[in-house]
Write a structure and sequence with these properties.
CATH architecture of the largest domain: Alpha-Beta Barrel
Structural class: alpha/beta
Number of helices: 13
Strand order of the largest sheet: 4-5-6-7-8-9-10-11
Strand content: 15-25%
Radius of gyration: 20 Å
Number of domains: 2
Order of helices and strands: EEEHHHHEHEHEHEHEHEHEHEHEEEH
Largest sheet: 8 strands, parallel, barrel
Shape: globular
CATH superfamily of the largest domain: Enolase-like C-terminal domain
Helix content: 25-40%
CATH topology of the largest domain: TIM Barrel
């Protein structure tokens, strides 16, 4: 049965990578970087172009243009679930996780944007809105920052953007983290304070620091141990101070991973990232799973990409307002959201995801 009122055969799939330097060296508890790679995908059908993207490695451009394009070209753009399944099947022998998942995610987001544009509707209305806006939490506070930079960034998110919560990185130099957390608390007053170790600690280290951070009112401890250590996360969830939530999931690429995490009772809040977990389709699956398990969901990074689907997801608590991605999306996309009183809202006058890629502005960062 056709769901469309006009022909919408996919005629082209394009992908390009752009490496955008950070505005200052950045690091977390397990990694340091000086640039972020944005991979933009465009899909054509019915006289419209859908846009999707991911933050990954430039090497996935070949996968998008090759095997994954073959899985969607000349098919009906309305059949998103069938196309998503076809892409998953196409990478079976490559492995569904990691870079293959990010490539599929970018194409899937472009397909949903395309569908909404063909309907001439904002994506959130095509998905079915659950809310008009989503709260954001400021995210950065990198371990490369001086104490002054840390205080300035976190304080501005509260004072200027109205964020109810902010998050900082920890774990590079654990002996300094208690003082850094105290400075963060001074900078943000009574606003919520989150910390993210990116899996840098052992279980006993994490428990030790959780007790110290609790004295500064830290209410969210993200990846205190590796997100692959579900037993460790589950144990910490039971033993950290009662007012402190354990969060993880940003490295989930498949629904099976999220199910295992929730089965293990490893988190108080599940994080999912549409640029990694299979796009809009994968994020909606993660949202349904959270609803079934009665666990809150938080959208990880890429706020412009998540805006519409986050407004449609049940149990969505908030969206990460990640410094790198906010800066890149404002630089390179018309229609990127701006916070008002600590929340972002879809522009219902723009069809699709509401974004227009400024290719000329991106060209200086193109990966050749």
């Amino acid at each position: 049965m056709k769901t469309s009122t006009h022909e919408a055969t996919i005629t082209d799939v394009r992908a390009d990578a752009f490496s955008i330097p950070t505005d200052f060296p950045e690091a977390d508890g397990t990694f340091a970087w000086h640039a972020s790679t944005l991979v933009v995908v465009e899909v054509d059908a019915g006289g419209m172009t859908g846009i999707g993207y991911t933050y990954s490695d430039a090497s996935i451009v070949g996968l998008v243009r090759g095997a994954l394009a073959d899985a969607v070209l000349h098919h009906d753009a309305w059949d998103i679930q069938a196309l998503w399944t076809g892409m998953q099947t196409r990478v079976r022998n490559l492995g569904r996780e990691g870079m293959a998942a990010t490539a599929i995610s970018a194409i899937d987001c472009a397909l949903w944007d395309l569908k909404a544009k063909l309907l001439d509707r904002p994506l959130v209305l095509s998905l079915g809105a659950a809310r008009e806006s989503i709260p954001i939490y400021g995210s950065g506070g990198f371990t490369t920052y001086t104490d002054a930079q840390l205080s300035e960034q976190l304080g501005a998110w509260v004072a200027e953007d109205g964020c109810r919560w902010v998050k900082m990185k920890i774990g590079t130099a654990p002996e300094r983290d208690p003082e850094r957390v105290r400075r963060a608390r001074e900078a943000i007053g009574e606003s919520g304070l989150f910390v993210d170790a990116n899996g840098a600690f052992s279980e006993k280290q994490a428990l030790h620091f959780a007790a110290i951070f609790a004295e500064c009112g830290v209410e969210w401890f993200e990846e205190p141990v590796s997100s692959d250590d579900l037993a460790g996360l589950s144990s910490l969830r039971k033993t950290v101070p009662a007012a402190m939530e354990v969060a993880a999931g940003e490295y989930g690429y498949t629904l099976d991973y999220f199910r295992r995490m929730l089965d293990a009772r490893a988190v108080d809040v599940l994080q999912a990232d549409a640029s990694r977990c299979g796009g809009i389709t994968g994020f909606l699956q993660a949202a349904a799973l959270c609803d079934a398990y009665h666990i809150p969901l938080s959208a990880h990074c890429a706020p412009a990409l998540h805006l519409h689907v986050a407004c449609a997801a049940p149990r969505l608590r908030h969206q990460e307002w990640f410094h790198d991605h906010v800066r890149i999306e404002a630089m390179l996309f018309d229609g990127a959201p701006r916070p008002v009183d600590g929340a972002i809202s879809p522009d219902l006058t723009r069809p699709g995801c509401g974004l227009e890629f400024r290719r000329a502005d991106a060209q200086p960062y193109a990966v050749r």
